Every structure is written in structure tokens, then in C-alpha cells.
Amino acid sequence: MGARAETASGAAATACAEGETRWARGDGRGAEAAFLRALDLARATYGGGEGPPGVLPARAHVGLGRVRLAAGDTEQALAAFRRAREADPGGAAAPFWTGCALARQGDLAAAEACFTEALDREDPHPRAAVRRAWVRAKSGRRAAALDDLRAAARAGALDDEAHWLLAALGGGAREAALRLRRAALTALGGHAPDRERAAALTAASWALHRERGAFVPLYAATLVAGGRRDTAADLLDDATRHDPADHRVTHALALALINSPAENRERCVGAWGALLHDAAFWERIRHGAARRYGVDVPDSLVPDLRTALREHLARRLADGTADIDARVPPDLLLQREAEAARLLDAAGGLPQVPVRGGPLRVAALGAARELGAFAAATADDTLVHAFSELGFARIQLRQGLPGDALAALGELRCRACRARPGAADPGAAPVCEVDCARFEELNPGYAGLPDGRERLARDARDLALHARVTLGHDQLRADPPDFDAATASLRRALVHARELGRYRRTQAKIVGLALATAKDAHRARLLSRAVATLEAARTVIGANERPRIDGQLARALADRGIVEANREGSTLDAPAADLRRSVGLSPHGRRAQLSLGIVLRGLALQRWGSGSLSGARTVLEEAVEALTAALAHFPDDPEIAEERRRAQDELDFVTEQFDESGR
Questions:
Q1: Least packed by Cβ within 10 Å: which of 99, 223, 523, 649?
Q2: HSE of 623 in the Cβ direction (CA atoms, 13 Å)?
Q3: Predicted confidence band at 160 (pLDDT cuts at 50, 70, 90)?
């Protein structure tokens, strides 16, 4: 070989070395360019041709094939390894890496043959026995795999992954898992961290031995970095069940889930709900912020921080579930979880189980029975309701959304129970069936009650009663009011009240709300609105409560009649009708009695003016009769007596005119 060829050969060797260095650093593109340059230089050394013989070209082809195999291009990798085998038929690297590529394709038999070939070379590949053990283990040949691994161990060729396989096949799972985790963390170091490999090793270690403790969040972060978020969430779920009080693990779980697919929404809300009212979590946040920014973060800021975090979470969750058929909106789900967590924290928490959080969290940790027993022993039903499906409706009712609360009360059953035959029966209880496996999971607050299902149905009816009364009241006060809808709402409220044995009390409440609403309208001179409000309430209540309505309705009718009668150009039929009704409802109303007589005299004059003598006489006869009846209630009233005298005189005059005209 001449001096020029020697120079080219040296340059090719240098290019190969550069490619291997770049590959070790994770620079795949730079490594590929270096290996291609090495091949060009090798061809120049041997005078061109498709594939010059020798170890150096084979080395470059192997390097190029490894780059392409890592990029997922298995066919191109196999082509490169084939050229390497042609360039150096006696080398072990080409059959070894061909076996790796075939194993990735799933051709385990061909891969095993390649690894065997690499072992049979004069200079065997140091990793061939371990790789053959892998494919033999995957093929179900455990004994043959163990033989390979033990032989490799005697030669000192076992790394942490091989130790794991040896332990998995022959025992020693905990030690093997530790080796895998160490290998995973090693894979994350250096200039070119291999996140996918680190995640795969961590997942394998977890499957082999579930190590719990302070390093669990680190292992989870390794899995997330390598694209195995679901495995990370499962790991953290297991760790939180083992130690529910460790807010660091719960925080890691919450972070993993909020960046996961929307199907994990309820798990995510459960984790964040536990943190929102975890004092230790906020203490760590405060101290961490103080160290990072060098300023004191007082405890008084925690409520504002908690509110800001909850609002941020609600927005994130809503953005991620726009296309999901959600049973409950994410913001409401989070509110219910946080509110229940706050109430449990205020009650001192479960005495025997270190659980923080709301219903979703309690169910996830399998503590529904413990929570139910604790809630049942409290002085009131606050915890019982908060840790149930009723919690959604209670929040919405408290926020002034009775319609939404009623909609939530229609969703108390799980999907399976709603889909059962007969679930649409209007007489059926709006709760899960007796044999429903999810009742306690969805309603842990009722898990400690022997009649939990019946209690939930009764409490739901009680809440529906309050929601119906509130909705009816809102519909009366709306602008414009919807009196038909209000009447329907109040009637349904009374149906619930009758079932609960609170009919009279609910009637009294409806009357009180209607009177207050009508009084406000009356003061604002919205007389027709006041009348319609009282009329709506009067149609739904029983006779025992009507006197309270009738007095104010009579006053409202009288005022409306008088105002309309005094309006210029008014026809007096409507005012007369209002005053007649006012007097009928409250005969002791002097003002209405006197005004009715005056308006009837004016109406008779309108009839006279239109040419109807008979109409005028009829109205005057009514006026005389009404004023006579008024004098029975107010016998010494000079104004009523004078008004009756005038009505009688006018009646006598009209009667004379009627007799003369014959009309």
C-alpha cells in the first residue's frame, strides 16, 4: 500500500473513531456523517468499488447500522450489517448487531442464530451471550437462558440489566430491581441521556420489586421523561396507597396526572383535592418559595395561593376535557373534592387512617368504609353529604344555581344503574340499585349507615325541595318573571314536601317568599307584577295559608285599579274588575269599597256615553249594591254613605230615562 493509501486509511480510521465518539455522546446525525466519511475514505484506499474488504469498512458499516437501528429504520440497519459481514466475514460485530435488529423485528429464532454465530467467532462478541439469553428467555427457554447468563457472569460480562435478567430467572428480585434502577439513573446522566432506556429500566425494576420510599417521585420522573406517564401514575398510585400522608408522592402523582390523557381526570382531581387542604404541602411550598426567592412567605398568603391554584387547575382540566363526555364538569368536580377535603381537615381527619382529600381520593385509597363510619359518628350530616354525589348539588345550590343543582340530583346513579331496565321509571329512587358495586365508592359518606341507600334518596329529595323552592322564587324575581315556570317549580316543591312530612312548613315558606317578592314589586310601583306574583303563589298553596296572601293581593289589586282608573282616557272595565276582586278577597278594605263605588259610577257614565242605557243601569245597580254592602261594614262612614246616595240618584235618573225610551 502506498503512502497516499496509508494516509487515506488512517483518515478512515480517525473518521470511524469520531463516529463512535459522537454516537456515545448521543449525536446520531454527527455519528452518521462520520461513518459515511469513513466509508468514502476506505473506498479511496482500496481504489473504489462497492464494498472494499477489511475490518475498517466493516467497522464503519456496523456504526452506520447502529445509528439507523436506533432511529427505527431496521431494514436499512440490516443492510448496513450485511455489508459489514461481507467486508469482514470473520468478525463478530456484524452477526451480533444483526441479531439485535432481528430481535427487534420479533424474529427470535434468527436472532438467536446470529448471536450463536457471534459467539463462535475466534474473537467472540462480549455481549453475545447476554443477548442470546434475552431472546431465549423471550422464547420461553429459561434453562438455556440461565446457562448463557451464568457463562457470561463467569467471564465478567454482566451489566445491571443482565444481572436483572439473571435474578428474574433465578431469584433475587430485590437486588436485581436495585441494579436496574441504578442502571436507569446512569442512563439519564452524561452528555446524552437516554430517557427511553432509563424509563424502560425503571418500569422493569418496578415490575420486579415494588420499592417504596422517598425515591418514588424520582423513579416516576424517570418514567415520565421516557414517555411512560401511565406507568409513572400507577407507581405513584401504589405509593400513595402505601403512605397516604406523604404529600410529596401525592404532589408527584398530581403533576403526572394533570399532564395525562383526559380519561385520568377524576384521579387527577382526587390527587389535587388532597393537596389543596394539606397543611404539610403548603408548608413545603412556602419554605421552598422562601429559599428560591429569598423572601419570607407568610402563612396568611396560603388561602389566596390555594384559591389561585384551584382556579388554575379548573382551567387546565376544562381545556383538556372539551371533547370528553363528562358526568360532572371538571370545575365542579374539583370544587366538591376541595370542599370535602376542607371539611374533613376541619373535623380532625380520620382517626386511624392518614387520609386527606375528598370522595375521589378516599375511594382511590380504599377508605370508604372508614370515612363512612367517621361521618356517621359526627354531630350533623355535613360530612355525609359532602362525601357523596349530593356534594355537587349542594355546591351549586349554595352558588345560587338551583336549576343546575336539580340537574346534578338527576345524576346520582352510576352509569351502569342508569342504563338498567326500568331506570327511567319516575317513581324509582334516584340512587344506585341495592346490588350496585359502586355505591360506596361514589358515596363514601353513606358507607357507614346501615340504610345508606334510603338515606341518600331521602336527603336527595330534601335537597330537591330546597332547590325547587329557590328556583320558583328566582323565577318570580326574574326580569321578566316567568310565572308559569314558577308555579310549576313550587308545585313540585310541595310534592317533595308532602313526601318528607313538611307540607305545612313549606307552604308557609312559599307564602313568605311570595309576600316579600310582591312587596318589593309593590314598592317599585310594579303593581301588575305584584298581583301576578301573589296569584301564582295562591294557585299552589292550600286554603289554610291563603288568608296571608289574600290581604296583600287585595291591596295590590285595589292600588292597581285606582291607578288605572285615574289614568287619562282609561276605560274603567279593568279597574272595576280589580276592585271587585279586591273587595271579594278583603271585604273590610274601606279604600277598595269606596273606590269600587266611584269607579262603577264612572263606568256607568261611559256606558251612558256609548248609548247603552241598559248597560249604565246595570252598572249603577251594582254600584248601589256594592256601596250598601260597604255600609254594612262601615255604617257610620259619611263618604261611603254620600257615594251610595249619588249612585242611587243616578240609578233613579237612568231608570226614568230607560222607561221613557224603552231601551
A1: 523
A2: 32
A3: low
Reported for 160-167, long-range contacts at CB under 8 A and 24+ positions apart, including other chains, are: 160/186, 160/201, 161/130, 161/201, 162/130, 162/133, 164/204, 164/205, 164/208, 165/130, 165/133, 165/134, 165/137, 167/208
pLDDT at 555 > cutoff 50: yes
Q: Could you read off the pLDDT of 497-529 as tens digits, one per residue?
A: 999 999 999 999 999 999 999 999 999 999 999
State how far the Cα of 441 lies from the Cα of 6, in Å rounded to an integer. Answer: 78
Q: Kindly state the DSSP code that residue 3 receives in the 8-state scheme.
A: H
Cell numbers for 543, please give them. Answer: 286554603
* Closest to 363 (Cα-Cα) out of 287, 497, 271: 271
Helices (H), strands (E): how many in the chain?
A: 34, 0
The secondary structure element, H or E, covering residue 40 is: helix 28-45
DSSP string, 588-611: T-HHHHHHHHHHHHHHHHHHHHTT
> For 298-329, where are the alpha helices, taking DSSP H only?
302-320
As a whole number, mean pLDDT of residues 383-389 equals 91
Handedness of CA 185, 190, 195, 197 (dihedral sign): negative
- pLDDT mean over 261-284: 85
| CA angle (74 as vertex; 104, 18 as ends), nearest 5 | 110
- The answer to whether 530 touches 518, Cβ cutoff 8 Å, is yes
Task: Tell me the average pLDDT of the chain.
Answer: 84
The confidence score (pLDDT) of residue 167 equals 58
Burial of 121 (0-12, 13-18, 19+ CB in 10 A): middle
Report which of residues 290 and 470 the model is more confident about.
470
Does residue 537 contact residue 571 with C-beta atoms inside 8 Å?
Answer: no
φ, ψ for residue 346, nearest 5 deg: -65, -30
Q: Tens digit of pLDDT for each residue in 627-654?
A: 999 999 999 899 999 999 999 999 899 8
The percent of residues above 70 in pLDDT, for the chain, comes to 88
Residue 620 · residue 650 · CB < 8 Å: yes
**pLDDT (0 to 100) of residue 1:** 46
Q: Is the pLDDT of residue 330 over 70?
A: yes
CA 130, distance to chain mean position in Å, is 48
Cα 312 → chain centroid = 13
Looking at the whole model, is its pTM more than 0.90?
no
CA distance 306 to 477: 35
What are the residue ranges of helices labelled H in 321-358? 330-346
Cα distance between residue 473 and residue 486, in whole Å: 7
Distance between CA atoms of residues 321 and 265, nearest Å: 8
Task: Report the greatest alpha carbon distance in the chain.
Answer: 153
Inform me whether the pLDDT recorded for 168 exceeds 70. Answer: no
What's the Cα-to-Cα distance from 27 to each of 22, 32, 93, 184, rounded to whole Å? 5, 9, 21, 20
Tell me the pLDDT tens digit for each residue of 12-36.
Answer: 888 888 888 888 887 888 888 988 8
What the block records as the C-alpha cell of 103 is 430481535
Amino acid at 356: R
Residue 262: band (very low, low, confident or very high) from pLDDT cuts 50, 70, 90 = low
Q: Which CATH number fits domain 587-662: 3.40.50.800, 3.40.640.10, 1.20.58.80, 3.20.20.80?
A: 1.20.58.80
Q: Cβ(528)–Cβ(577) under 8 Å?
A: no
